[in-house]
Amino acid sequence: MGTRVISFYEQFECLATKCPNTCCRGWRISIDNETRERYEKEEGAEGFRLKATMTFGEDKEVRRFFGRCANETKEGLCRLQLKGREELMPEICRIYPRRSIRIGDDEEVTFELSCPMTARLFLENMSDIRMVDYEGDEIVPLWIQHKFNEKHYDDILAIRDKVIDYINSDAGISELMSNLYYYYRKLHSHVMAQDIDIKTVPIMGHVPDKEEYKYTFYSFAIIDRIIMNDLKDGRFSFQDALYDFSKSYNKIFGKMTAAQADDFFNDKCEEIINKYPKLHDKYKAYLAYYTYQMLYSSYEYVTFYKEYLLGNVYLMLIMTSDVVDFVNGKDMDDMERQIKNLNNIEKRLRHNLSIKKNISHRLEEEFIKIKEGYKF
Ligand code: SF4
Fold first, then answer.
1. Whose CA is nearest to atom 6 of ligand 1?
2. Rounded to an integer, what distance in angstroms lies between the CA atom of residue 194 and that of residue 183?
3. Residues 183, 332: one domain?
4. Is residue 19 lining ligand 1, measured as CB closer than 6 Å?
5. Looking at the 3D structure of the chain, how many domains does it have?
6. Same domain, yes or no, for 182 and 54?
7. What is the pLDDT of residues 54-94, one digit of tens each?
8. Considering the domain boundaries, does residue 15 fall inside one?
9. Which of 11, 12, 22 is the pocket-test mutation for ligand 1 (most atoms within 8 Å of CB)?
10. Is 118 contained in some domain?
11. Is 8 exposed, middle or buried (0-12, 13-18, 19+ CB in 10 A)?
12. Is residue 88 lining ligand 1, measured as CB closer than 6 Å?
């Protein structure tokens, strides 16, 4: 029992004014109840100002002006932090980019990869993605999962170890995406039926004889709609790096049928992985990283099957951004570009609740319902 952190945790240092994608911009920042109470109690000019930075309505957020947080200085720093009033920063800002979850007496801390520094650390350390014991200062948990069931907790950790071992085996990324899908689907039905000890469920291949593993876990009939419709969410701006991505994507894939796009994507993935094996390592490392976070945070909600399906969307979009770069003749060893792509996909997709909701809905309608015959 204790605190575990992601293996590169202690290397993190905020880029502050040098940050190309500061966390003060482009987010909807909720103001938690405790911070809100502090705003209500704060007197004088500061109190007046803080109250004015809150949105109307029940669920308070920090107001944004042209996408910038109301507390951001013109140098791109947080005014409250500069004044030494960190207690007035919403909890999420105090903790970001850490993702800290406490379950029982345990706490696990990883990073959101929507921060350029953590995306860099992930890419620089992708051969060593694991959780390690941590003895440093206390890390404030962002989520506390109060209900503790020792057996369920142990099961989740055992399942996670099994999945991580499988990811770290010599299985390729297309095999992993497919077999883990069948595994989580089976796990989910056993959880629902409460019929067997879930940690005993084996990970087994489920590929029909003649079918090969494909990089297209989802057909481009779905991926195309995610890129061209869901990703935009009405807030696509010309400064947004994903605007360039969607434009380039459309130039390459826009004239193809879904079947042609699937074949093209599979061929290109094969080609770039053969030429740049490091990209294959990146996809596997991302899946491992996502697994660490996803299984720990699904402890209370048993939603791993659906969360896994979302993870495969993020992974395929990372692969698609590499295919687009490759076709456009970009330098695939360019670390800065890799950071930017990963960072933007994470920020835009995983951490934008309305986009996540759109994609979940799409997966329900266009994947789960069709493949499984039911609505989640
Ligand atoms: S995004 Fe990361 S590096 Fe940039 S200001 Fe925020 S915490 Fe610091």
1. 23
2. 16
3. yes
4. yes
5. 2
6. no
7. 888 778 888 887 777 888 888 778 888 888 888 889 888 88
8. no
9. 22
10. no
11. buried
12. no
